[in-house]
Design goal:
By secondary structure, this protein is of the alpha/beta class. The protein has six helices and nine strands; from the N terminus they run ββββαβααβαααβββ. Helix 5 packs across helix 6.
Length: about 180
């Protein structure tokens, strides 16, 4: 599949195709992005990274319009999932500020807010000396994170999922709180 290709899931849902990491080629991994419209809300599940994905999100947002609210759900704080997070503020520039929301898990909030530098350095330390090319975890973390452009995660409107009130969920015969 080609980076940025748009796949129509249904009339209200598009998948934007990402790509795998190739450090030797200077190519970041990029997550797939889901864009879905429900009622008057445009929902993005992750925002990917790269200008190709950013442009695809803009196109899909236009295709799925009109909408008056935008909600970004970040599955986790890795750079391939958060690099274009500021796109929601761009898309929602003409909306009431309360109509633009972003959620990430509390577990990932710290990693997300430091752009992953501490997270990746700590995790690469675990394999330092075991895997060739990872002898200097801090340098490797900076080299790895340097592949991800643009990298503009937002924090001023970011809230955690855990701040939301608990809801009763029914999945098949299972009844859960979540």
């Amino acid at each position: 599949m080609t980076l940025g290709k748009q796949i129509e899931i249904d009339a209200r849902t598009r998948l934007i195709v990402g790509q795998e990491l190739n450090m030797a080629a200077g190519q970041p991994d990029v997550c797939n992005v889901i864009v879905h419209r429900t009622g008057d809300t445009l929902v993005l599940v992750d925002s990917g990274v790269t200008s190709t994905i950013r442009d695809a999100i803009r196109t899909v947002a236009d295709d799925l319009g009109p909408w008056s609210k935008i909600l970004l759900l970040t599955t986790h704080g890795h750079p391939d999932h958060v690099g274009n997070n500021d796109i929601v503020k761009e898309l929602g520039a003409d909306l009431d500020p309360s109509a633009v929301q972003h959620f990430v898990s509390a577990y990932d909030a710290g990693q997300y807010r430091d752009l992953g530098v501490s997270y990746w350095t700590t995790n690469l330390t675990r394999i330092s000396g075991l895997v060739p090319g990872f002898d200097d975890p801090a340098a490797t973390a900076h080299r790895l994170l340097g592949l991800f452009h643009p990298m503009v995660p937002i924090t001023d409107i970011t809230r955690t999922y855990e701040e939301l009130p608990m809801e009763h969920l029914t999945i098949g015969t299972q009844h859960l709180s979540g």
